[in-house]
Iron-containing alcohol dehydrogenase (Geobacter benzoatilyticus), 394 residues
Amino acid sequence: MNNFIYSIPTTAYFGKGQISILGETIKSHGGSRVLLAYGGGSIKQNGIYETILQQFGRAGLAYVELSGIQPNPRVESVEEGIELYRNNGCDFILAVGGGSTLDACKAIAAGVKYDGPVNDLFVGEPGGATISEVAPLATILTMAGTGSEMDMGGVITVGADHKKKVIMHPLLNPLFSILDPEYTYTVPEYHSMAGVADILCHLMEQYFTPDVAAKVQDRMNEGVMKVVLEDAPKILANPQDYDARANIMWASSMALAGFQFLLGKPSFAFPLHGMGHELSSKYDMTHGVTLALLTPAWMRHTMSTAPAYLPIFARFARNVFDIREEDDAKAAEEGVKKLQAFYSAIKMPANLREAGVKEEDLNVMAEKAVENGKLGILTPLGKDEVLQILRAAF
Ligand code: NZQ
Ligand code: ZN
């Protein structure tokens, strides 16, 4: 196992009614005038918005609103938020929603402390800037999936070709996050299950790395994966199953908290995300759905081109899906089949074609996916390999 530093600076307030600490906790972090950011309005339909305003009123907090942050959030919302924050003398940001709102707010938090264009702050930008200060940020999570509530990253859609760009810095971990599973009761089935696919993929992206005997990380990871597989169907059967919603919400947070299942392992790669973002750029496809579509094809590609790693895929099949097959290649393939059956059970589309992807777009998506270099960690994925995977998923 390699050396690592482990730090999760975000305080999680988890469970029913935890919003009662909101106003005073913002004040304890020096907030007096809050930029209140949310998405397309779901928080007004399910009562969360009213509760927030009551909390603000009790604590004597002033606020300014940024609304309309879209799924796959656009940089224009970030720029609007930076303007609002500056022009109204705000000193705190509260993001209320799913990953899209949270991510937009992370970029706003960094952007308000930076003089140049926000684009400079994205990872890998030529001539880019280093984040050295951010505005104080807290979140209220209303949909489980991305892990943004307890991680240091965000993903913003930029430009005419809708490129998904990443902003990442330890300072972008929220100060605190309120995680009330009841807030997720109203998430539509499609988004609830896309969130489940996202959580599972975050776990798998950290699991499928060269084996460095990081046993604690891998066994904990397998445990969380099993919980996700077990509890997602319970949400399908009953969207108000509190314990299932609670387990899925905590799995979302734990999957990326401090990238804890990647600690001590070879570096960050997340190839499935690299490919999936191209589907979102081209078709505005829901993030978690892109990952469910690509994972089985990526697994089979890796198993066949890098057979040295078959034991990892076989271990996944045995420990997560309880496959009892001794031959590694057969066990690994059984695991992929079980995973596909799970995606089907949570109503993910079966293939890219069914998801509305056009065959003639595969080539350009493969090109764009490797624009900043090859993807992958077990086996490097250049344009040709990405294209093979996209074709296999088609
Ligand atoms: O906008 P509103 O009206 O709130 O509706 C949203 C949106 O339409 C709805 N929703 C959320 N909570 C709800 C609700 N509807 C009813 N009741 C509620 N309680 O759900 C829809 C999807 O919301 P969104 O925030 O887009 O979903 P998600 O949480 O999946 O976020 C996706 C974004 O996060 C990025 C993705 O790339 C994508 O842009 N990611 C962020 C990561 C991170 N920060 O670490 C990691 C991930 O891998 C991912 O890339
Ligand atoms: Zn993801």
Observations:
- The first helix runs from residue 22 to 28.
